[in-house]
Model the fold of this input.
Amino acid sequence: MKALVFNDVGDIELKDVQDPVVKDPSDAIIKITVTTICGTDLHMVRGTVTGMKKGTILGHEGVGIIEKIGTHVKNFHVGDRVIVPSTIACGSCEFCLKELYSQCNVSNPNGPDKGTAFYGGPEASGPFNGMQAEKVRVPYADINLVKIPEGITDEQVILLSDILPTAYMGVEFAEVKPEDTVAVFGCGPVGQLVIACLKRLSPQKIFAIDRVPSRLKLAESQGAIAINFEEHDPVKQLKKLTNGKGPNKIIDAVGVDAQCPESTGSEFKKEFKKELKKIVPKKNAKGGNWVPGNGPSQVLRWAVAAVAKAGTISIIGVYSDQSKVFSVGEAMEKNITVRSGNCNHRKYIPMLLEWVKDGSFKSSKFITQKAPFADIVHAYKKFDKRAAGWIKVLLTI
Ligand SMILES: NC(=O)c1ccc[n+]([C@@H]2O[C@H](COP(=O)([O-])OP(=O)(O)OC[C@H]3O[C@@H](n4cnc5c(N)ncnc54)[C@H](O)[C@@H]3O)[C@@H](O)[C@H]2O)c1
Ligand SMILES: [Zn+2]
Ligand SMILES: [Zn+2]
Done:
């Protein structure tokens, strides 16, 4: 089959690989019909999330049709159309029973303390081959698949595989109330869906911070107040627009590839250089692609400085093991609550399917590009460069 393979940092290739097979009786093999690209994939190709094994198939977002099932699979049949949640859980350990699927004790073959098991990730996450491929093996299929209801298209549900549940969880962590003011750092696909989830809770104000004009425009079209961090210091601007208090909820939808402003430079330039040495042991930028963000802790620093006293910071942007910088003293002095984590995708998908069915969530606003799977490397390059107008690309296989 054809699959997108990680060769090395800055080196990905669409090539022929072996088809996956049923290894365990709880497995299913899915023929992927639609896949896409996530900001997390970019971290791995840029080298800001390390530890990728050569030859791993990338991608953790997909929907498809069940082609084969192992003898223990009870909840699904060959031919069922399914969403594949990005994280892999066993469904029966103490964490899975609490629906904390990303903290499953069993599914990561490296052991219970090695982190979240997911498709197309670093060696420590499995590694499991991913969904930017014609087929994928799904372990513990009874818990790691969700059936697509009759009459619903792949395009309508592809964002439920990863980023809509992630955005929802980020908003849930922030416990948003109507009296709140909320700032969202990052207006990529995840940030846009955070704004969409926030709107359902009608907070007083939603601020959206980024520097890509087309992304800020889309955030504005959703009703957010856009702040371009190349034009305004976001901390000062957020304080100014909240009567000096700062937003009481902040959501980080950027992660380790954060940029510092080019226009003004950063007062933390020296610190960022030191951080980058540890976070990015190898980089391989080519033709303007795969350039690691130059301010790994920029958003965390801005968030702690901007958030109102006794506020909450919800971190869903991905940071690596080597991301060690967080202003804990400043946060403590302000009685800040911090919540973070990899999404427990499977928990939220059934509820989010109701949003699709009742028409209150429409993926079409966020799927700005469509391409055949054969064009995936080109699509990675465009998404990596945050090309004007690019939010989420739908790749049809
Ligand atoms: N926790 C989870 O389970 C989970 C799931 C999916 C994605 N993620 C993470 O969410 C993050 C966003 O994903 P995405 O697909 O939207 O990625 P993306 O790279 O398309 O978007 C990131 C956006 O942040 C902006 N940005 C960079 N520096 C900034 C700064 N200093 N302040 C404000 N904005 C800044 C960029 O211009 C870009 O628009 C990534 O870190 C990804 O790994 C986490
Ligand atoms: Zn993702
Ligand atoms: Zn488990």
Remarks:
- The chain has two domains: 2-162+344-396, 164-340.
